[in-house]
Amino acid sequence: MTQAQFFQAVAEAADLPKAQVRVVFDAVEAVVTKRLKGEGKIPLGGLGNVKLVDRKARIGRNPMTGEQIKIPARTAIKIAPAKALKDIFNKKAKK
């Protein structure tokens, strides 16, 4: 699915013009970015949570040559799905 197809699907589901959906998603992106910079965590309702995590520096390996390389420390964005969303895709087999 492309971004345009995604916006079209949301527009149809919400019965809104595609241009309005794009404006809303741009606003969501701006709010999420601002909140992550300030608080480091933001809930996304039934989808889950987005948070910043610090990754330590470590030694990795170049898969082509096998040479060891140093991977620097960095801040990463982690998306943790909500339990309800996970349960939709991980239903236990009924006995």
Return Rg in Å.
Answer: 19 Å
Order of helical and strand elements:
HHEEEEEH
The CATH H-level superfamily of the largest domain is IHF-like DNA-binding proteins
From the N-terminal CA to the C-terminal CA, the straight-line distance is 36 Å
Give the amount of beta strand, in percent. Answer: 25-35%
Overall geometric form: elongated
Uncertain segments of ≥5 residues (pLDDT<50)? none
**Main pleated-sheet profile:** 3 strands, antiparallel
Measured as a percent range, the helix fraction is 40-55%
Tell me the CATH architecture of the largest domain.
Answer: Irregular
Q: Summed up, what is this model?
A:
The chain is an alpha+beta fold. The protein is 43% helix and 28% strand.
What would you note in describing this structure?
The chain has helices spanning 3-14, 18-39, 83-89, and strands at residues 41-43, 48-55, 58-61, 68-71, 74-81. 43% of the residues lie in helices and 28% in strands. With 95 residues, the protein is an alpha+beta fold. It has a three-stranded antiparallel sheet with strand order 1-2-5. The chain folds into two domains: 1-39; 40-89, HU Protein, Chain A (Irregular).
Task: Give the secondary structure arrangement, pairings included.
Blueprint: H1 3-14, H2 18-39, E1 41-43, E2 48-55, E3 58-61, E4 68-71, E5 74-81, H3 83-89
Antiparallel strand pairs: 1-2, 2-5, 3-4
Helix pairs in contact: 1-2
